[in-house]
Amino acid sequence: MTEKKQKPTFLFGKKNYKIMLIGLAVIALGFILMAGGGSDDPNIFNPAIYNFRRIRLAPTLVLIGLGIQIYAIMAKDTK
Description:
By secondary structure, the protein is mostly helical. The chain has one domain. It has two helices and no strands. It has helices spanning about 15-35, 50-75. Helix 1 (about 15-35) packs antiparallel against helix 2. The mean pLDDT is about 90.
């Protein structure tokens, strides 16, 4: 009986992991842009929490990052 041991392989290829890291960086950038804008005093309203960066840009970057992650999972690695 000769048993051949198979070499363990990663689930994804190098290309997939690179794309995943890019997607993770885009998601992190979106969350960083979303942060801040609050007021230290609860009696003072700060309208900066409703600016373009926090309402439109940051959530769009998070969604784009999630799309990149989905693409990274679905992409075939060229071996």
